[in-house]
Amino acid sequence: MKHIISIKDFSKDEILNVLNIAAEFESNKHEDLLKNKILSTLFYEPSTRTRLSFESAMKQLGGNVVGFADPKASSVSKGESLSDTIRIVEGYADIIVIRHFVEGAARLAAEVSSKPVINAGDGSNQHPTQTFLDLYTILKCKGTLEDINIGFVGDLKYGRTVHSLVHALSLFKANMFFISPESLGMPPNQLEELDELGTSYQVSEKLSSFLKDLDILYVTRIQKERFPEAMDYNRVKDIYKIDRSILNSSKPELRIMHPLPRVGEIDPELDNSEQAIYFDQAKNGVVVRKALLSLLLGAV
What we know:
This protein is α/β, with parallel strands linked by helices. It folds into two domains: about 5-125 and about 285-295, Aspartate/ornithine carbamoyltransferase (Rossmann fold, 3-Layer(aba) Sandwich), CATH 3.40.50.1370; about 130-280, 3-Layer(aba) Sandwich (Rossmann fold). The protein is about 35% helix and about 15% strand. A five-stranded parallel beta sheet has the order 7-6-5-8-9. The longest helix is centred in the last third of the chain and has 19 residues, at about 280-295.
């Protein structure tokens, strides 16, 4: 494993191996495992959980972090190309994490770099490390990834976390339910891929159509920044609202996930319920990213 660019680059067994290593990191701190190693974080888009959990993971393992959270504070603002930035940064660090607004930017970085590159999100394409922590969260709360019923609600067109997770769960024969307005439905190429894999899925605009069947409800934010026109965003921004009333129509075992941030689609009154696991989900990012950094740097 030289780079982490797309979840599609991983087999089922390789995914399970990463999750097993993450569980080991949750049990043992492994301090100084990456001592004297340097992580470079290149974030061309805003981030809280992904960037800080990578930094936390690296520092807890004894490593150091350099990089930028605002490209305007770097030579990007002077017109430096992505390729040149990567060639410069690889001389300063042992591993690179990049988030970029252009699909395919992370793969370009990996082609240029002699150091390992991790995709922290490229446009609306992929977010593989989020997928690993999502899978880890599901495995912890359900005890298995096999044959679960999972509903995805919200922005399924631009949601890179959904695109990555759907592919991974197809390897585990998950039954998927896609709930969104027609304008934000799963991209046709994604559905075609699921058809080729023989994955079971259903599509609806109404959450109530599937709620009683779900083991996991994966809620996503309607992403204002992805819409070319503000009018289109305003038309759908408040279309789904998850609150306590959902518990009256769902199984007691339902668990609610969200990659965060939320902007109103989940009522805070759900936060302290047994069903809400989205803050645990975010916390799991540290141990999962410890595992991924250690694997890429050959420490485990």
